[in-house]
Amino acid sequence: MARVYQELEQALPGLSKAVYSQPVDALSAPKVTVRPVTVKGGLCYQIETFRDNKAYHKNVEAEELLLIAENELEGRYRQVLLVSLRESAQYVLRQRGDYKKSSSSPSLPRPGGGESHNRSKEYILREGENIPALVDLGIFTSDFKIVRSRYDKYKQINRFIELVDQELKDYQGREISILDFGCGKSYLTFILYYYFAVKRGLEAKIIGYDLKADVVENCNRIAEKYGYDKLRFQHADVSRDVLSQEHIDMVVTLHACDTATDFALDYALRHGVKYIFSVPCCQHEINSSIHKGGELDILLQHGIIRERVCALLTDSIRTAVLQSRGYEPDVIEFIDLEHSPKNIMLRARYTGKERRKSLEQALELKEKYGFAQKLLELQYPEECAGKKPL
């Protein structure tokens, strides 16, 4: 007589997933999925159950998982799938109460050939995990396999989460609060929530702001569908509306257009937010206001060069302001989701160490070339107006 929990125990060292489906009674969840996850550097197992179209997650150690499998799952589901590095096996509950191993096959290689198993270990969002946003994006199939044609997109999303993970690897809090400015359709917002709430087991609270009321309404519906009860979206203009006055640990801006990035950064500085992740977009402000007047004139003669120089100058000034307010910024090449050339991320952490030299240079350039730069003006209005020396 086959005992599935014993088969599960043997598969644990290389388990990819276990799926219990077709419950024998109405009291059991319609489906239970088990996957290995890494939480705070250690391996454990995530038990996911679905009830009323909502997903619930619990992370357990191997010993507790086996107890649950034996006492709560064994015999209560007509069908069980175990996928490990060795094989993929299907078990069917027979009338006499035991399971028959109905089929098995060697586990298939991951997309990309023989090296893909090693590569998949490097990804934080692993193939086989039930990540609803990746399914809705068409990156995962309904059974959580990577769609081969979307593999590049899968790597890009992992890159974003990897940059967040690198910066917060030593984060010791049990809760984290995040504001996402200009969140749009919010796929990355949902993935951020999944990363913190499910992968790391934190009490995550995320607020997404966007100008489009219909987009906000739709995102709130999706959050409810996923069961993400501490993820909400609000219709707001970040340049003029009163935003959250709660304690915030992290600010995210992904392609907030033009000066919307500056208002988001200004919010972070004024509220003492510790972590900032900003991928700017559409930096027109300096380009539309700069005039010739010095050594940089040769860079302003041709439109495409002028545009790129002004975009780089914008981000250089933003990093200077961050440094002057006690942040340690990194300027990172980020492969964004829309295959855009605007792929610079400003990642910053508050340290309290203020540095003013670059800010002085930025103010000198502003005076010489007459351009406008919103973050500089928001943080240093009197200095920009020439009413007060730095």
CATH architectural name of the largest domain? 3-Layer(aba) Sandwich
CATH class of the largest domain: Alpha Beta
User: How many individual helices?
Assistant: 13
Main beta-sheet strand count, sense and barrel state: 7 strands, antiparallel
Structural class: alpha/beta
* N-to-C series of helices and strands: HEEEEHEEEHHHEHEHEEHEHHEEHHH
What is the H level of CATH, i.e. the homologous superfamily of the largest domain?
A: Vaccinia Virus protein VP39
CATH topology label of the largest domain: Rossmann fold
Helix content: 25-40%
Q: What shape does the CA trace take?
A: elongated
Detailed description of the structure:
Strand 8, helix 6 (187-199) and strand 9 (203-210) form a beta-alpha-beta unit. Mean pLDDT is 86; it is low at 108-121. A seven-stranded antiparallel beta sheet has the order 4-3-2-1-5-6-7, with helices on both faces. Strands 10-9-8-11-12-14-13 form a seven-stranded mixed beta sheet, sandwiched between helices. The chain folds into three domains: 4-108, no CATH class; 115-157, no CATH class; 158-384, Vaccinia Virus protein VP39 (Rossmann fold, 3-Layer(aba) Sandwich), CATH 3.40.50. Helix 1 (4-11) packs antiparallel against helix 2 and helix 10 (303-324) packs antiparallel against helix 11 (357-369). It is built from 13 helices and 14 strands. The protein is of the alpha/beta class. It is elongated.
